[in-house]
Amino acid sequence: MQLMVNNVIRELTALPDLRKANVDLTAVATQTAFIEYYRWLTYLLLLILDLLICLAVCLGMAKQSRWLLIMIMAFVVLSVILSWASLGASLATAVGTSDFCVSPDKLIVNQTKDFISADVAHYYLFCSPNLPNPFQQSLTICQRSLTTMQIQIQGLLQFSVPTFPTAERDLLGIQRLLNTSEFNLHQLTALLDCRGLHKDYLDALMGVCYDGVEGLLYLALFSLLAASALSAMLCAIFRVWTLLGRRDKEYDDIDEEDPFNPQAQRRRSNIHSFCSYTSSTGSQASIHPPPQAAASVLPAPEYMNQSMLFGGSPRYENVPLIGRGSPPPSYTPGMRTAYLTMTEAQIRHFGRDFQV
After folding, report:
1. What share of residues in the chain are helix, strand, coil (percent, to 5)?
2. What is the pTM (predicted TM-score) of this model?
3. Neighbours of 192 (CB within 10 A)
4. N or C: which end of the chain has fewer CB within 10 A?
5. Cβ-based burial of 316 (10 A; exposed 0-12, middle 13-18, buried ≥19)
């Protein structure tokens, strides 16, 4: 029995010390989850920033505001820099992960060659039926030694107890110890089996090399599209800025004498003065009718002669248009008479802007 115990101790001691290859995978998973959370938050904030920039660009183009466009350009440049930075980070991580996924088995063997033999590493990495179990011989010797000791204890209990009754307690204690050792040996055999560890290894490779790399490529694609869209948006903003500058230059080149110039304040003042004058002279014309000579200078328009068709109504804007391409002006006969009887001094005062 002492010889069998020495055999078990020798075989268990010859097993590789796997404690040197101990890696806290729980800490690695926790750190990865922590980084992933902040990565998700960063990309979410970047997406919100891009949406706000798009809304601000639409608002700036609608209002044609220069200061708003300047502020938008600053944020667009910042977002473009962040998008290109995220694209570089995603591509760098994807390339590094892809390099690992090309040959992960070789990398693990090289990293563990100092404290784990190559046959043990290949046994767990490939778990092929064609590969021999490197622990099988030691486990078999231990199992045989324990079985031999169990047989010897059974023989001692059968033949020695009747002669030495006091030895029964010691023999039963040794038997219980052998049963516990055999149970632990079965557990060790199950733990050293490659199937469980190999399945976890394949699941980890699938998560990193397929789902992980695919997610990184989607992130890189998002960053590329965002950077391209923002670059195009920046070009559009520069184009709008150029058009706004050209429009202001065209407004500066408009002739002040142009009757369609919205900035011609002189014309609006003349219109106001003329209307005030005609409104005051219209009442005077109703009391003192103009001489016939002045009325005969310019014949009445054709549409005025048609007023008798409508009962002589003085509202000439309701008279049908005959031979004209625009509606008649809204003024009374007194206003027209006062205009026709303007003196030379009045013409010099108001100008010839309203002369027929």
Report:
1. 75, 0, 25
2. 0.57
3. 20
4. C
5. buried
